Amino acid sequence: MTLNQLTILRISTDGDHPVWADLYTPDGQSGVSSLGGAIVVLCHGLKGHRRWGFIPRLGDSLRQAGLAALAIDFSHNGTAGGDGDASDGRVYPRPELFRQNTLDRERRDLASVIRWIRKGGDGRVDPAVRIGLWGHSRGGGSVLLNALDDPADIAAVATWSATAHADIYTPRQKARWREAGEYDFLENASGERLAMGVGFLDDLESRHTEYTLADRAASLTVPHLIVHGDMDLVIPVHNAERYCDAGSVLAEKKLVRLRTGHTFGIGKTDESNPLREAIEVTVDWFRRFLLNPGEDT
User: Which uninterrupted H or E stretch holds 135?
Assistant: First the structure.
């Protein structure tokens, strides 16, 4: 499926800026079938967007497996929204929005998307559809927060490269952050300068206990697939192990460790690479819990 075949959606949030999304639907469907219908919401990470890296490939793989996928741009990820093209060619033409973003805002954005689905998605989605959530890196935090907040609406979750706690910054980094009024860096792929404002840090510290994601996962009642690279230098693999160590009898967990880094070898063409394995196990997970609930595989 090419990008120009996707349905582009604008989803209102509880703020001034919408979530833009690409809808991948199984062949022959303009929406989600009411017969065993299932949809997986795909959430990007810190410097990602709905068409970043492996997200389109995962969305198309889910579509081919009979699952709809909704790849979203968080409202303050700094991209152009709409068709995703900025007039000046920049990937992040709205850095001021990126600067204002927080994890709590992303959690609320995702909650807005889930409510939109439950209201019928402007006539495109069966309100009774089974919902799965997938997130990479920081997007995994938003996924888990929503699954913990409102598990009745979610059938299964999968996280790739998720951190055990959203606050991964050292005291020295935080001190410099507050002194400068921002935490800035270059986005390697595009060379654009981005910065997170102090509001992001305030959110991390004011909700520190709430963001102890691995510890809170012991009370997760939703099946959770945990995929992580053994060579991840951004979010080391011990973060994934902590999710499993926080044992729970309330829902099934599965840890898949792959010999790869934070972005799963994106850009490699070898079909035996870890990205292919990560996609396959993720598609199988959602097929099991969304299309065939209650069946053992």
Answer: strand 130-136
This prediction has a pTM of 0.94
CATH architecture group of domain 3-170+212-291: 3-Layer(aba) Sandwich (3.40)
- Alpha-carbon gap, residue 274 to 107, rounded angstroms: 28
Domain ranges of the chain: 3-170+212-291
pLDDT in tens, the chain (297 residues): 566 568 999 999 998 999 999 999 987 666 665 444 899 999 999 999 999 999 999 999 999 999 999 999 999 999 988 876 655 678 999 999 999 999 999 999 999 999 999 999 988 888 999 999 999 999 999 999 999 998 999 999 999 999 999 999 999 999 999 999 999 998 877 889 999 999 999 999 999 999 999 999 889 999 999 999 999 999 999 999 999 887 666 789 999 999 999 999 887 666 558 999 999 999 999 999 999 776 654
